[in-house]
Amino acid sequence: MVASTRWASIRIMIGTILGGVLGFYVMHRVEINYKEKMKERLARYEQEMERKEQQRLQDEHLSDS
Fold first, then answer.
1. Cα–Cα distance between 21 and 14 in angstroms, integer?
2. Taking the alpha carbons of 55, 59, 62, 64 in that order, is the dihedral positive or negative?
3. What are the residue ranges of helices labelled H in 1-65?
């Protein structure tokens, strides 16, 4: 009886530790993927803003001529 109780508590501890490690790994991967997507979005946004600024400068230059 004592052995089964001890074995049960060991299984619970091992499961808790492994579950924590798995959860940490999954959240780590999610965070990395999220950061990559945000970097890509920021790069596209910066390109769009740069393109708009170039267009604005070109339009101003043409209207001044």
1. 11
2. negative
3. 2-64
